[in-house]
Design brief:
single chain, mainly beta, Tumour Suppressor Smad4, three-stranded antiparallel β-sheet, five-stranded mixed β-sheet
């Protein structure tokens, strides 16, 4: 499991998106990428702003299957 978001002294994450662009708009825990037992990767949006997978929006509270070479963008 890999967490994406904005690290703070009280919130440790794996991929700190605060290093890119206007960080204050990114949730502390924006998303989580998980590997399922069947070998598929899924991303769950746990933030308020959409995450785009290959140009398609994944709204907060939803998840999406990642494919080989998927492009993941976090809306700011």
């Amino acid at each position: 499991q890999i967490t994406l978001g904005r690290a703070t002294k009280d919130n440790q994450i794996d991929v700190d998106l605060a290093l890119e662009g206007p960080a204050w708009k990114i949730s502390r825990k924006q998303g989580v990428i998980k590997l399922k037992n069947n070998g598929d990767f899924f991303i769950a949006n746990e933030g308020r702003r959409p995450i785009y997978i290959d140009g398609r929006p994944v709204l907060g509270g939803n998840k999406w299957k990642l494919n080989n070479n998927s492009v993941v963008e976090v809306s700011v």
